[in-house]
Amino acid sequence: MRPLTEEETKTLFAKLANYTGNSLKNLIAPLDNGANSDRYVFRLHQQRCYYVRLSLANLAVSVSRDKLLSLGTCLGKFTKTGKFRLHITALPILSEHARYKVWVKANGEMPFLYGGHIVKAHVGRWSEDCPEHQGVIVYSMNDTPLGFGVTARSTAEARRLDPTGITCFRQADCGEYLRDEDSLFAS
Amino acid sequence: MAPSRTSTVKSKHAANKSGIRNSKTSTRSQSDGVVKSKKPKSKGAPPKPQKSTSTLATLKKKRRVYTEKELNIPALNMITPIGVEKPKGKKKGKIFVDDRESMMTILAIVNADKEGQIESKMMKARQMEEIREARKADAEKRQELRKAKLDETKEGMRKKRKRASMGDGEKKENVRSEAASGTKPLKLKKKTVSFA
Predict the structure, then answer these.
(1) Computed over its alpha carbons, how large is the radius of gyration of chain A?
(2) Is residue A134 a contact partner of residue A153, using CB atoms and an 8 Å limit?
(3) Any A CB within 8 A of B136 CB
(4) CA within 13 Å, CB half, B24
């Protein structure tokens, strides 16, 4: 387990900034105003990046590397080429700071949770002025985050789309907790 | 074969250094006059090629030695690829970013970068939308013009027909059925006559 290098931090933030707005800086803000106050840090362990409280990360040092399975919240994985891939486990953090959102109707929830893209007929509501190929967080109509993806069309273009046209490409959904149960937490 | 070889090797040194006259080598060298006569030649011969080699060496030294940069060798055509080669004098290992300030600066840079990207995307989309709207409006206008022209010609035709019908009101029915140019009614008239 180690902190991220400069390059890795940049890659990670660039990825997170696809989905979040300026409030991303709250992610690393100290929890209270004290000099030695606890804060959240990023830790890399076996190619996976974890978002964890510093006090917890310091405690985790006492666990040997091969025995340490996970700590804090897993954000995703660094690929061997140095890119970063977000996992569904990062959804609670992303949804807190989401910039663009898509709300899916009740009849579109299951198709999305089974790994399908979002068609226009299933969209209940979407953020205005959203450009093409922009990261969005997918919510159900009662504001429960279901996953995330990228928009296929800008909001203006999507209005003209036919009901079966894809508006948002799925990247991760909550169904992965079951589908990728074996590989999600351990490689 | 073997003894002759040894003799030639030994004879060079033995002729000068061996003081023993009874030794085999001394006797041989004395008896073999032809060999003696050859000796100075063989002695003189080696320095010459040496001289030539030395001159060659000096020539080689005089030749300009090109550096790798001067030869314009492609950068990737090397034993160690250019990306793999590590800079000298730099500390080995990773530099971690764990303090809040540096993380904040990285975050600010990344955020500004993303903001710019999104902004440019939006601008582009808006421009495209404007162009699309303009094209749509243009097409609509053209359609309107075409429709107006069509209506105008229709009106003209109707007026002409009315005038024609006013001239000979009897053939109203026939004219209506054909509804073409003013010359046709005359032909039709002939036909009707023939049928009648």
Answers:
(1) 18
(2) no
(3) no
(4) 6
A112 and A51 share one domain? no
Token pair, residue B63, equals: 């030749």
The number of domains in chain A is: 2
Prediction pTM value: 0.64
Tens of pLDDT, residues B72-108? 777 766 676 666 666 677 777 888 888 888 888 999 9
Residues of A in contact with B106 (CB under 8 A): 6, 9-10, 13
Same domain, A83 and A111: no
A131 to B118: CB separation less than 8 angstroms, yes or no: yes
Q: Examine the domain organization and report whether A81 and A142 are in the same domain.
A: no
Strand order in the sheet with A118-119: A118-119, A166-173, A145-151, A135-140, A101-104, A123-126
Long-range contacts: A29-32, Cβ < 8 Å, 24+?
Answer: A30/B100
- Of the residues A35, A66, A89, which one is the last residue of a structural domain? A89
Same domain, A79 and A110: no
DSSP string, A42-103: EEEETTEEEEEEHHHHHHHTTS-TTT----SEEEEEE-TTS-EEE-GGGHHHHHHTBSSEEE
pLDDT in tens, A135-171: 999 999 999 999 999 999 988 889 889 999 999 999 9
Q: Is A80 within the bounds of a domain?
A: yes
Among A89, A118, A146, the domain boundary falls at: A89
Say which of A3, A24, A25 has its CB closest to residue B98.
A3
Find chain B residues with C-beta within 8 A of A3's C-beta.
96-98
| Residues whose CB falls within 8 Å of the CB of residue A14, separated by 6 or more in sequence, listed in order | B110, B113, B114
Extents of the domains making up chain B: 98-162
Whether residues A60 and A82 share a domain: the answer is: yes
Residue A146 distance to chain B (closest CA, Å): 24
Range of the structural domain that residue A58 is part of:
2-89
Sign of CA pseudo-dihedral B121, B127, B130, B134? negative
Please report residues of B whose CB lies closer than 8 A to that of A10: 106, 109-110
